[in-house]
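<goal> How does this chain fold?
<body> The protein record starts here
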Amino acid sequence: MGKIEKAKALWRDRDNQMRYMRWLLFYSKPYLGRIIFAMSFSLFGTIISLLMTLVSKRIIDDAIEGTDNQLIFLIAVYFGMIVLMQVFEVVWVLFRTMLNEKFTFGIRKQVYDKILKSKWLDVQKYHTGDLMTRLTSDAGNIADGIITTLPSIVTLIIELVLVFFTLFYYSPLLAVFSLFIAPVAGIVSWWLGGKMKKLQVKVQESEAAYRSFLQESIANLLIMKSFTNEEYASDRLVGLREDRFHWVYKRTKLSMVSSTVMSMAFQLGYIVAFTVGAFQIAAKVITYGTMSVFLTLVNRVQSPIMQLAHHIPKIVSILASAGRVMELQNIEEEEYLSENIKAENIGLKVEHVSFGYTDEPVLVDVNLDIKPGETVAVVGESGIGKTTLIRLIMSFMNADEGTITFYNAVGESEDANAGCRQFMSYVPQGNTLISGTIRENIAFGNPDATMEEIIEAAKKAHAHSFITRMPKGYDTEILEDGGNLSNGQKQLLCIAR
């Protein structure tokens, strides 16, 4: 039964890998032309280096035979190829780097937009540090895989075919024997893939925990200091570092073991090629130039196989990161209705609303009718659901039961949805300011606001007087979380916003 369950699990994981690959191909479509160009560029470098091997053979043979009529010309051609390869390398690195940056940002932008449009309560299930890891590290893995790893695999396969047939032309026996490493590479890669994927997920999870603690502890530095928990925080960080070190070490060790096995197989193949070539030279079957071609091409046959095997951990890393990013992409988006009622004289009706974050209800059968123009205060002790009610009205989350409806004085109505937030201004608990100027923070509530409107809003919130006393007035930079303002000043800016 255990083997059957394991087989089922592997099959299900295979389906996931295919799903991840389809997702990667979908996100690669806008860059497909540039990716193909990058592969062609890389293939061009392979062809040039192969021609350099053949030219070097002619140079060696001509030098030994003493036929120097074309020797200078061949050396000049060889030197020109070296210069061409150097120029090619510079252009290739620049192109690949810029393409990687654009692709990375493209993934991050799409995931970021998805988070912005997703249901707030579903996003809250993820720690900010974990989200940042997925937006940075995982997105970077995916981009590097699409731009560098996958094109490299295609190029290496083409290179392997070209070099193999070139070597086959000179020595069929040696060409076939040079593939000795292929079965070893296949077995090692197959064994490595499943283990590496699990370790890569653990590495990413440990990085998320590490970043999450750093982000939380720095953001709540006052709490750390007020409870004199500096030493505890430092020890906790060391513990998280040790956990990450453990998984990074295991992943690296596994990768090094596989690399060592591959390298030994490679060296064995090279020694055999060298021995066969030496005996053929002794028997005057081949020239020294042909010997140099043998050694170079055997290298060039086995090197792509080794590199293909080395790419297995990268592919595993790409698929693991794709799964983590896809998880965010699968979050349900908020509902924005395309047609909204006229935003004048708005009223609100809450009917038989019940809600609970868990099985324990926070609100039960709540009814409320706020008519246009009314001023209403919802009061009560902490924990009875006042903030929860506001979140439901704002459609940050949906009620388990009941309805919330907006209506206006002319009889139009609309069920609560994310689009209805245009009817409301919101001052949340705490002081939620962003880094930037005071002017930018107030205008965040209306990005098209003029300076006159910003000042008018500040005056209505009784914030204008303290703003004008600031060093640069409305252009004063606010530190993270309003660190250079008092709590009262921060709250007034939130009201003005």
Residues 230-282 form the longest helix (53 residues). Residues 1-11 have pLDDT under 50 and may be disordered. Strands lie at 346-355, 363-370, 401-408, 413-415, 436-437, 477-478. The two ends are 63 Å apart (CA to CA).
